[in-house]
């Protein structure tokens, strides 16, 4: 027995079968963001008063660089998932919704790549690190 209307069955409309994965992705990234963000805040507070060269050397440390890259990846993915929910809920035109979701995805990819590139550039060109 189905709770779907006959018209809904004909159109093939219904659950996209991705809701659980989306929900879990948001929850997992939210949990990952907590320790990563705490590390980031503590790391940046510890650099108060340090010179530019000292901060660059600190970020060039492989452990710090990897944690920062993990933070960037997790935060941008979490941001994309959250904005997708907002777009799906509040953009009503189908074409506008698709374009907004595509723009959201490209925006988060650009932000993530630019941020990760900056961390890698510091890590590999500072001459310090290990």
UniProtKB/TrEMBL annotation:
InterPro entries: SQR/QFR_C/D (IPR034804), Succ_DH_anchor (IPR014312), SuccDH_FuR_B_TM-su (IPR000701). This is Succinate dehydrogenase hydrophobic membrane anchor subunit. Part of an enzyme complex containing four subunits: a flavoprotein, an iron-sulfur protein, plus two membrane-anchoring proteins, SdhC and SdhD. GO terms for molecular function: heme binding; metal ion binding. It comes from the Bacteria. GO terms for biological process: tricarboxylic acid cycle. The chain crosses the membrane at residues 28-49, 55-77, 98-124. It comes from Kaustia mangrovi. Its main location: membrane.
